[in-house]
Write a structure and sequence with these properties.
The structure is a homodimer. Chain A has 14 helices and 18 strands. At the A-B interface, strand 9, strand 10, helix 6, helix 7 and helix 9 of A face strand 9, strand 10, helix 6, helix 7 and helix 9 of B.
C-alpha cells in the first residue's frame, strides 16, 4: 500500500524502476496524430484529449475533457491539501509532419534510436510537447504509487491548439479563471540550457503572425500572351519581402525598434558566463554566418533581439515540370518575433502599412492575422523559483541557468493577465530536438530525469 | 459518291451541314485528359494519340502512332498527287487544370455556353490545341466526303509533349526528316488578331525556362529557436527575384538586351494601323498599368520585347493555418521570353551568374533547365503566304494581319533547322480563350470558320 510518509528517495527509486512503463505510455500518446492546424486531424486531437483525461483519472485526478470552439481542453484537479497550489500546463497538439519523405521512421510510430551517443525517442511531438507534459504526469504517477497522493495541490491544463494559435485558450481561461488559479503556474515547453545544465526561462519573445496575399490579374494568365505587360504578383510579393530587411540584417519596417529594450546589465553579464558557442549552434544546422542584425551575437539574435521571418511563400505553378503561367495571386506567411515592450498590434499595423505602400495601384492586398502575443519577462525571484532552482540543482548537479527563449509561449502572458499568476518555465528539451521538423526526438535522459526533476520540485514546493 | 470535280462551295456547304457532328468529334477528343506534364496521365496521352490515328485512318490517311521516350507522335500521310505538299502540325497534349475549384464545368467534360454574346466550347484543350488541330482534320473530312481526296499532298504530325518541353520532338524530327519534309509547314496553335480579323504570325518570341532552388540550413528550423540568426532561404530567394527587374520595368540581368533587335520600320508602321487597344487588353484581365519596360506600348511589351517572368515560387509552410518554420529550401520557376537574336544559352548563363552573385556563402543554389528556344522570324512573303492570306480574306472578309506572337512555338525553329521548311502560323483562337487557365474555351465560330478557312487554304494551295 502507498505510504504517505515514504521518503523522496523512495519516490525517485519508483521512477527509476518504472521507466520502461513510462516510455510505453508516452509511446501510446505519440501514436495519436493530433495535428491541430489540419482540420482532417480533429478526431485525433479529440482522441489525445480523451487519452490524457483517462490517465489523469487513473492517478486520482478529478479530470475531464472540456469542449471549445476548436480542439478540447483537458482539466484535472487533485486538491484539498494544506499546501501550495500549482497549475501545470502542457499541450497535446503537434505540428504537421511535412515533408514526410525526410523522416527516418513514421512520425506517429515512435522509435528509440541512438544519436550522438544518446538514446532518444523519435516521433512528431516527442519533444514538443507530449514528452515534456508526460514528465509531469509520470512524476504524479510515482507519488500516487508510493505515497498515494501528491505533496501539493495540483491542477493540470492540457491544450490542443498551441501549434494553431490557441484561439480557444483566452475565452477558456476567462471562463475558468477561479477554477484554474493557483499560487504558481508551471509550463513545460522549453529547453535545457545544454545537455548537462537545466534551465528556467524568465524571458520570452512575443510573436505576430501575418498572411499576406497579393492579387494582380483577375485570373491566371499565359506568359506568352501577357508576359511583359501584365503585373506578376510573385514579382510584387518578392519585392515586398526583399524590402523587409536592411542590408545590415535589421528589419526595415518603420518604427519596428521603437519599443525594443536592451538586456539588463546583470543578465548580459550572466550570458557572457553561460556556455554557448554561436558558431557551433549555426554549424549544427549547416550554416556559418549569423543572418541577423550586424554587431549582435548569435545568442542575442535568437533570444533578446526581434526578427522578421518568412515562414512560407507560394504562387503560380509549383508541381513537376514547368508551366508558363503568370498567376493571379501569390501569398506569404510572415512572422515577427518581439522583445521588450514591442506592441504586437502596433507592429502588425506598421507591417501592413509597409506592404500597402509597395503594392502597385492595380494590384490588391489582403491580410490575415495568425495570432499576436507580446514578449514576456518573468520576475527572476520568489519562493517558487528559488525552490525549483534548488530541486533542479539536486537532480542535475549543476546550477540552473536563468535564461531567455527565442520562441513565444503566449500562455505565460495569458496566465499573468487573466489569472494573475506568474509562471515558471521549466523544460527538459534539447536545442537539437528538431521540433517542428522531420525526425523530432526527445532524449531518453530528458524524459527520465525530467520525471525525477518534477518529483523533486513538487517535494520542495511542499516546504513553502 | 464523292466527286473529285466538286466545287469549293460544295465542300464548304458540307462543312456547314456537318458542323454538329464536327463538334461531337471534338468533344470526344476533349474528354481525354491528356495532361503531358503529369506522369499519372501518360495513359490518357496514349489514348488521345490512338484516337487521332483512328480518325486519320478513317479519312484515308496512312496513319500510325509512333512511340518516343515520352508521349507518342501521330503521323499520317495522304500523298501521291501532282500538287504541292504541306506538313500540318498540332499537339494533342494539354496543360494541367489546377486550380480545379475555379472551373465552371469539369475541365474534361466539355460544355457549350454563351459568353459575351458568342457560343463557345469550354474545356481544357478546347483552344490549346485540340480545337485548333481538329479544324484541319474536319477540313480534310469535308474534302474526303465531297471529293474523295485532298487537293494537295498532306502529312500531319501531332505531338503529345508540347506543354512539357517537347523533349522527344528533336530526335523524332531528326529520324523522320525525309518522311516529313514538305514544301511548307502549317502550324495551328495561334490566335486571330481579333474576333473579326484573321492573322498569320511571322514573329515568335523564344523561351528559356529555369528552376532555381536555394538551400540554407540542412533542415527545417523552428523560427523561435533560430529566427534572427539563421539564414532564411525564402528571404534569399525573394531578394534574388526582386533583383531581376529594374524600377523602370526592364530586366536587370547583365547583357540581357545585347542581342535584342528593334522592329523593322514597316512592321512598326503596320502595327500602328492594326486595331489593338492596350488598355482594353489589360482591363480585360483586371489590370490597368503596363508592367513592362517604360516607354514601350502594351503590344510591344507582349510581342516584340523580351521579358522575365516568375511562373512559380514555393518555400516553407503553405497549408492552412500557420507554422513558424524557417525552411531549409525555397525554389522558383523563372522564364525569359526572347526576341531578335538573343541566344537562349547565353541568357541562361547570364541569369545563373546573376543568381550566383547573390547567394550568401553559406547557402547553395541548384538550377534545372526547362527548355530553350530562340526567337523565330518567318519571311513575310512567298507563294504559300500569299495564297493563305487570300484564302483567309475570302473567308473572313477582312485583310489578314501579319503579326508577332508573344508566346514561343519552338516547332517553327525546329522545322526550319531540321527540315529546312518555313512555317505558316495560322490559328483561330481568341486572346480571351484563357488557355492554361481555368475555363479555357474555344468559340464555336473559331471552330466552324477555322474548318472553312483550311478548306479554302488547301484549295488555294492547289493553284501553286
Amino acid at each position: 500500500m502507498a505510504d504517505p510518509t515514504s521518503s523522496l528517495d523512495a519516490v525517485l527509486a519508483h521512477v527509476d524502476d518504472q521507466i520502461d512503463a513510462s516510455v510505453e505510455r508516452l509511446f501510446a500518446l505519440l501514436r495519436i496524430a493530433s495535428i491541430s492546424t489540419e482540420p482532417a486531424y480533429a478526431g485525433e486531437c479529440r482522441k489525445a484529449a480523451d487519452w490524457l483525461a483517462r490517465e489523469l483519472d487513473e492517478l486520482g485526478f478529478d479530470a475531464d475533457v472540456r469542449a471549445t470552439e476548436g480542439h478540447p481542453m483537458v482539466v484535472g484537479h487533485q486538491k484539498g491539501k494544506d499546501a501550495p497550489s500549482v497549475l501545470f500546463y502542457g499541450h497535446y497538439d503537434v505540428q504537421p509532419v511535412d515533408p514526410l519523405s525526410l523522416w527516418e521512421n513514421e512520425p506517429f510510430d515512435p522509435k528509440i534510436r541512438e544519436e550522438n551517443g544518446r538514446n532518444a525517442i523519435f516521433a512528431r511531438g516527442a519533444s514538443d510537447d507530449k514528452g515534456q507534459l508526460m514528465t509531469f504526469i509520470e512524476a504524479c504517477r510515482a507519488y500516487k504509487a508510493v505515497r498515494g497522493s501528491l505533496p501539493v495541490n495540483v491542477t493540470v491544463l492540457f491544450e490542443g491548439e498551441e501549434e494553431a494559435g490557441s484561439a480557444s485558450l483566452g475565452p477558456f481561461l476567462d471562463a475558468t479563471a477561479d477554477e484554474l488559479k493557483a499560487d504558481i503556474a508551471l509550463v513545460c515547453d522549453t529547453d535545457m540550457w545544454d545537455t548537462e545544465t537545466p534551465s528556467i526561462i524568465t524571458m520570452l519573445r512575443g510573436l505576430v503572425g501575418e498572411e499576406v496575399e497579393i492579387t494582380a490579374a483577375n485570373r491566371d494568365l499565359h506568359s506568352g500572351m501577357y508576359g511583359g505587360a501584365a503585373r506578376n504578383p510573385i514579382q510584387v510579393l518578392s519585392d515586398i519581402v526583399a524590402s523587409l530587411r536592411n542590408p545590415d540584417g535589421s528589419v526595415a519596417v518603420a518604427g519596428f525598434y521603437d519599443d525594443v529594450t536592451e538586456l539588463p546589465a546583470h543578465v548580459a553579464e550572466q550570458w557572457q558566463r553561460l556556455p554557448f558557442d554561436g558558431a557551433a549552434y549555426l554549424s549544427d544546422v549547416g550554416l556559418s554566418m549569423p543572418a541577423g542584425e550586424r554587431g549582435r551575437s548569435v545568442l542575442e539574435q535568437i533570444t533578446s533581439r526581434p526578427t522578421c521571418e518568412i515562414n512560407g511563400i507560394t504562387g503560380g505553378y509549383t508541381g513537376d515540370g514547368f508551366k508558363t503561367v503568370i498567376p493571379s495571386k501569390a501569398s506569404a506567411k510572415i512572422s515577427f518575433r518581439l522583445v521588450g515592450n514591442q506592441d504586437p498590434e502596433k507592429i502588425r499595423e506598421a507591417f501592413r502599412a509597409h506592404v500597402r505602400a509597395r503594392v502597385p495601384s492595380d494590384c490588391s492586398v489582403t491580410f490575415a492575422s495568425h495570432g499576436a502575443s507580446p514578449a514576456t519577462t518573468i520576475p527572476a525571484d520568489g519562493a517558487f523559483l528559488t525552490k525549483a532552482l534548488a530541486a533542479l540543482t539536486d537532480e542535475w548537479n549543476r546550477e540552473a541557468a536563468i535564461a531567455g527563449s527565442g520562441g513565444s509561449i503566449p500562455i505565460v502572458g495569458d496566465f499573468k493577465r487573466k489569472l494573475g499568476m506568474d509562471s515558471l518555465l521549466i523544460g527538459f528539451a534539447q536545442t537539437d530536438d528538431r521540433i517542428h521538423s522531420p525526425n523530432e526526438k526527445y532524449n531518453l535522459e530528458s524524459y527520465h530525469r525530467g520525471i525525477r526533476s518534477w518529483v523533486r520540485i513538487l517535494d520542495k514546493f511542499a516546504e513553502i
